[in-house]
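Hey,
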Amino acid sequence: MAVSRRLFVTAAAALVASSGTSLALAPAASATPVSPDEPWYRIPVGPHDSPAELVRKASQVRPTERQIAWQALERTAFLHFGVNTFTGLEWGTGDEDPDVFQPVGLDTDQWARALRDGGFKLAILTVKHHDGFVLYPSRYTTHSVASSSWQGGQGDVLRSFADSMRRHGLKVGVYISPADENQYLHGVYANGSARSERTIPTPVPGDERPDGPTFTLPATDYGAHMLDQLYEVLTEYGPVDEVWFDGAQGRIPPDKVETYDWDSWYTLVRTLAPDATVAVSGPDVRWVGNEGGLARENEWSVVPVQEKANGRMDFALSYDAPDMGGRDALVAAQPVADHLQWWPAEADVSIRDGWFYHADQQPKSVQQLTDIYFGSVGRNAVLLLNIPPDDRGLLPAADVTRLREFRERIDRELPEDLVRGARTTRSPGTITVDLGRPREVDRIRLAEDIRHGQQVEGVVIEARTDGAWRRVTEAGTLGASRILLLPTPVRARHWRVRVTRSRRPAHLAQFALHRSRT
């Protein structure tokens, strides 16, 4: 392979690249000074910081531009598809016959249309699941579509997927599993190899790729294999908007382990796809902590973290802690936390019971999906809904119908904003609205301008009735999106939201009032 230029990138460079902002935090007079070079999305903390200092630092954390864009997506889709679709397994074994993969009716345009019509803005394909089977013709494994007789060994699901999503206005995400049962069987995964400097991409005989950048990065044997596959995906399939990792180890013997080369993987992604969000074992987005699609009642985007082996960001508290970023949580995490970081939550769930398609399963009801929407998007998280293609390579008709019904239901739950065009006045921490005449309201949507961080710890919504302001409902955190449901409609002309507690002066970006049509 001819190489036009050579890049040497270190893990330290990855940290700089991941900031996504040129802003620097001025040094603070505290027990743990903040470096002027430290990006605002991540601020160091130490064991001698007081509770008040922890809150002050949390109030200074800001999201990167890529995080702001990601949180605005609201509804994203997952597409679990691979050899498991044809074997009936949820977790493959790595020794499948590639010829089992036969999606003779593959239509990724059908996927894209269904997702677009369902209100989704980004879709993530399982390019490689834990079994190691790859949905594009990789140079670095034979466990791929190229070894199947489907389309004469010339098939490329990733190519079709990426083209279809962009053609229909959706962003493109890829899931490349860190675990790889097939590479374990080939003696590469968890083989005990030491990290050493590797040149990426690894040269392959007869490779006809055009000239491109090369990297020298520390990696194990398997870490280099992942780097090679990431390089293929990120250089040959157009702009990628999200790279999704989990932390699974695979069903390997308990005395075996692969310590993932997170720092090198992040470096490669940041360099080749600088606008891509890295989730959920990544610095941009965290797992919400369950697979039911539900966020916490008060979900913080600023949370305490600790850095683990090879630069992986990890939870300082348990992944399923009931409070991830409140005042008590900041103190509870102090013994192990080394930073406070903007690390917003992604809430994942499947439309069916399994992640892969099984003919005997049916999609969730519209009411279940609606409850999930309000429990995720309505609580400062982004919904990641899995819709698995079937063994024809199509989204099942029942699922397509359910997606459309789901979007229509949310449209009825949150119709036109009654505040639009109304007289609005603002004062510090308060927005007051005059609707012009009494209107019924049963859905209230709030948001902070997260460019100023997440500050709100408490708000109250009031309506003026019988000449006096009366409390309608209240909430704790807001963040990028908070939706409050009233059990019965309230009729009033004048409405207001008041911030009752915040870490710094709050910047409210949205106060929307709706009357549902359900």
